Amino acid sequence: MFEKIVNYLSKQLDIPTEEIREDTTFESLGIDSLDIVEMVVDMEDELGVELELNDKISTIGELAEFIESKV
Length: 71
Hints:
The protein is mainly alpha-helical. The protein has helices at about 1-15, 35-45, 60-70.
């Protein structure tokens, strides 16, 4: 899941995948909460699951863990 998120962000933000680690924060990438919601909606469509963000997620790794727990 982490790799899917990294590839998604790399394409969306036009940055190399090597620059994105599990502890990379969304804030450091210039991603706000609206961008996170949009990304989760895209992941829902791709994975065919419904993901409800109830907790504050601040890193790429946290988002990957959250999605893995729901799939």
